[in-house]
# Entry
Amino acid sequence: GIQVEQSPPDLILQEGANSTLRCNFSDSVNNLQWFHQNPWGQLINLFYIPSGTKQNGRLSATTVATERYSLLYISSSQTTDSGVYFCAVPNSSNQGGKLIFGQGTELSVKP
Amino acid sequence: GAGVSQSPSNKVTEKGKDVELRCDPISGHTALYWYRQSLGQGLEFLIYFQGNSAPDKSGLPSDRFSAERTGGSVSTLTIQRTQQEDSAVYLCASSLVGATEAFFGQGTRLTVV
# Structure
């Protein structure tokens, strides 16, 4: 099955700093999602981004499907950005099937 | 409904008892997923439904685990004869069809004592 790797596993930032999180996947995919798991465990949808670039406020994401990676950019980080960031891709290039998650990047933003 | 709803939010059970966890997907979503997350770990896939059928149940860890979905909507995950290692947060997600954007519920935190 498809493998998903995220880096770095852990990241500590000072408030206001920028960061880039990476998600590599081992096979072609027709969609990719980024999630933020807040300290209460809730998984929040950030981006649904099969390819190209999307922006939402201080966050943006780019997926380069042909090179099998996606990047999540966080600018001017805030303490509320702390938590774990997951990327996920479908197990199959066809419609249907489970989502495969990376192991996550744990981000801690210090005031 | 507006979002994926799971119940109960928390469940404490004695070892050996059976538990049922419920998931109400977003209205109209045909695909439904169950995942498990142990403390400090990633998401472990359990089972995937498309409509009422489960084309992928490869993640169910033992025959003590089962799940069903009725009417293409509500799903129930049942764990029989619970063990301490079953303690985890059980997360449910739904999507319009398989492999499209998935949305998660808030999870059920199961503690087996």
About this structure: The mean pLDDT of chain B is 94. The longest strand of chain B covers residues 88-95. The interface with chain A takes residues 31, 33, 35, 37, 42-43, 45, 48, 50, 55-56, 59, 89, 91, 93, 97-104, 106-107, 109 of chain B (CB under 8 Å). Residues 31 and 50 of chain B are 5 Å apart (CA to CA).
